[in-house]
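Hi V.,

Quick status before I head out on leave. The structure for the redesign project is tokenized and pasted below; the design run finished overnight.
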């Protein structure tokens, strides 16, 4: 078997180098390094969010168990995202990342539920029903939840539903 002429091999090498230079280099080598998001972008972006209570809601005793009063509630917890992993995501991507976050958060959820139950057991039914006490209750819950968490930090809590019976 006879080897091809050296000029043909050299021409093929030049064509291969030119193809790399014009097509592959701009695609793979000339990309600027990723710029980390700014603190302002992280603040404005969506944050990891989970919902406690689901569609049925949580039912917890309010005050002493002998009082016979209870609350049905749904809580939305928003968590701190120091890495900015939610920056630039559309709503479908945010929902998908929240599902991933909920799966990651699942082992700690029992501690959060225990904190919610403890706070509601310490409140009187009249305090829970009073609208002027709602912000104080929200802050108490947020503090109790953060005290029970190890790896995450909840930065906001919203009552989606809060009914007292």
């Amino acid at each position: 078997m006879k080897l091809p002429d050296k000029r043909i091999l050299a021409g093929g090498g030049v064509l291969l180098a030119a193809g790399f230079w014009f097509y592959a280099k701009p695609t793979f080598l000339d990309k600027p390094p990723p710029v980390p998001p700014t603190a302002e972008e992280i603040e404005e972006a969506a944050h990891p969010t989970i919902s406690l209570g689901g569609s049925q809601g949580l039912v917890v005793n309010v005050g002493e168990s002998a009082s016979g009063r209870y609350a049905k509630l749904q809580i939305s917890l928003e968590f701190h995202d120091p890495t900015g992993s939610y920056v630039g995501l559309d709503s479908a991507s945010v929902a998908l990342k929240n599902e991933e976050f909920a799966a990651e958060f699942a082992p700690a959820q029992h501690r959060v539920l225990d904190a919610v139950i403890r706070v509601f057991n310490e409140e009187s039914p009249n305090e829970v029903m009073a609208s002027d006490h709602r912000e104080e209750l929200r802050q108490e819950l947020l503090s109790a939840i953060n005290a029970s968490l190890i790896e995450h930090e909840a930065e906001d809590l919203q009552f989606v539903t809060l009914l007292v019976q």
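Above is the designed sequence. The chain has six helices and four strands.

G. will cover questions while I'm gone.

Best,
W.
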